[in-house]
TrEMBL record:
Domain (Response regulatory): residue spans on this chain: 3-121
Lineage of producing organism: Bacteria, Bacillati, Actinomycetota, Actinomycetes, Micromonosporales
GO MF term (any one): DNA binding
PANTHER family, A to Z: TRANSCRIPTIONAL REGULATORY PROTEIN NARL-RELATED, TWO-COMPONENT RESPONSE REGULATOR
Transport keyword on record: no
Protein keywords: DNA-binding, Phosphoprotein, Transcription, Transcription regulation
InterPro entries associated with the record: CheY-like_superfamily, NreC/VraR/RcsB-like_REC, Sig_transdc_resp-reg_receiver, Tscrpt_reg_LuxR_C, WalR-like
Keyword DNA-binding: yes
4-aspartylphosphate PTM positions: D54
Gene3D superfamilies per the UniProt record, alphabetical: 3.40.50.2300
Protein's UniProt name: DNA-binding response regulator
Organism in which the protein naturally occurs: Asanoa iriomotensis
Domain HTH luxR-type residue range list: 148-213
Domain of life where this protein originates: Bacteria
Length: 216
């Protein structure tokens, strides 16, 4: 018997999922949670075989909860099957990076959902076809770590200084004051770094700065 913990902030959705997955001889719902924090607490208490996890929730969202489950010594081996109405490619990759076993959309058929639960419980990774296409497209556009390391090595000394300050969380104005540059010049350097390092946003620059050892 596969014991599920359903995690969704909407009570009606949880009730609907319960009705769908329990209409079978081999799946039962061990419990429910309305956010990621509750999921962690109830997971430790109930020890389910699988988390069925929504992404968009208050208090702690599904991505943060998945990462926390993976870091928890009690729960880290419990599969997390992400189920959401959203198919944004950034959400998809963030969920996978956090450790989700599979990623499904809520508009899938009931039989497909039950099959995905069985697949995830067996240690495999169910992903709906539309999500799989998005993941492949995003990965094709994402530079490899080697390419980013090469780009980091090719930065000028000034660009490395700028990146280090971004890694410390400084704004463009603060970077300008620290390096005796105008805010517009600092902004231009940051934009250039985003392009050179193929970073999506400033947060990725922070990660790259720490990875490159530019920040203590």
């Amino acid at each position: 018997m596969i014991r599920l913990l359903i995690v969704d902030d909407q009570e009606l959705v949880r009730a609907g999922l319960r009705a769908l997955v329990e209409n079978t001889d081999d799946i039962t719902v061990a419990g429910e949670a309305a956010n990621g924090r509750e999921a962690l607490a109830r997971g430790r208490a109930l020890r389910p075989d699988l988390f069925l996890m929504d992404l968009k929730m208050p208090v702690m969202d599904g991505i943060a909860a998945t990462a926390a489950i993976r870091a928890d010594p009690i729960l880290r081996d419990t599969p997390v099957l992400v189920l959401t109405t959203f198919d944004d490619e950034d959400d998809v990759l963030d969920a996978v990076r956090a450790g989700a076993t599979g990623y499904l959309l809520k508009d899938m058929a009931a039989d497909a959902l039950r099959a995905a639960v069985r697949t995830a419980a067996a240690g495999e990774s169910p992903v709906t076809p539309s999500v799989a296409r998005q993941m492949m497209a995003q990965l094709a556009r994402t530079p490899s770590r080697r390419a980013r390391d090469q780009a980091l090595a090719g930065l000028t000394e000034r660009e490395r200084e700028i990146l280090a300050h971004v890694g410390r969380g400084l704004s463009n104005e603060e970077i300008g004051r620290a390096l005796f540059l105008s805010p517009d010049t600092a902004r231009t350097y940051v934009s250039r770094l985003l392009t050179k390092l193929a970073a999506r946003d400033r947060a990725q620059l922070v990660v790259l700065a720490h990875r490159a050892g530019l920040v203590d």
